[in-house]
Amino acid sequence: MNCIIIEDQPPAQRILKKYIEDLGSLELKGTFSDPILAMSFLNTNDIDLVFLDIHLPRLTGLEFLKSLNKKPYIILTTAYSEYALESYELDVVDYLLKPFSFLRFVKAVGKVPIAGFSLPKEYVSNRPEQQRKEHFVKLGYDHIRIPFQDIIYLRADGDYCDIILPEKKYLSSEPMRKWLDLLDEQQFVRIHKSFIVNISQVEKVSGNMITLLDGEKLPIGRAFKEAFAERFLK
Q1: Does residue 119 sit in the same domain as residue 176?
Q2: What residues contact 1, with CB distance under 8 A and at least 6 apart?
Q3: Contacts for 40 with CB less than 8 Å, ≥ 6 apart
Q4: Which domain holds residue 161?
Q5: What is the pTM assigned to this prediction?
Q6: Among 112, 135, 145, 156, which has the minimal tally of Cβ within 10 Å of its Cβ?
């Protein structure tokens, strides 16, 4: 499936390029920061799918979408939730709220209704659509119930993941990507390649550091900083 990216922020471009490369079933044909140039490209090239930002120079993503005569499938990528209703009225495939996880990206791509296209088997999930509120973590012969609301943050530890709770810490054998798929992306955000934080536990943001309610400080990774700032600091 041929795709292009229309996104004017280099960090967001890099994340989308990495996700497309990791998925392996998409062919990236171009990346554009200017929607007018992208429009010209679409007029002369056969493109199936567009990853489209909403805040763009010269035209907004929604204005761009309304102006297209021949519309490919569209997945919107934005830090702002208030455009969701209008975007679905324009028949977009999905609405990705930045910063989004790789598995959330995969789920969006899996909705594209193109005959013959399918996700790689390792990314096909049988998980119910209803958002879970807890998860059982295997520790030895026991399974410990972890309510998501109690999680302060998660820290990657190789192929494992530390789950930090008030006065407790558990080591999960499930990797960061698994937890990104389980957790509610409205409540939990990835701020670094090694950290996912419960946004309700953040007291303040200072430069490249987050201070939690208990005083602990966590770093914000360069690749995640801009999307985090756009979503939570404006």
Answers
A1: no
A2: 25, 26, 27, 48, 49, 112, 114, 117
A3: none
A4: 134-232
A5: 0.56
A6: 145
Residues 27 and 59 in one domain: yes
Beta-bridged to residue 74, according to DSSP, are 50
Burial profile 136-149: b = 16 or more Cβ within 10 angstroms, e = fewer: ebeeeeeeeebebe
CATH number of domain containing 202: 2.40.50.1020
Tokens of 211: 């201070």
pLDDT digits (tens, 9 = 90+) for 43-76: 999 999 999 999 888 888 889 988 888 889 999 9
State pLDDT tens for residues 142-194: 899 999 999 999 998 877 899 999 989 999 988 887 888 788 877 888 898 89
Whether residue 128 is contained in a domain is answered as no
Domain end point (choices 63, 91, 123) = 123
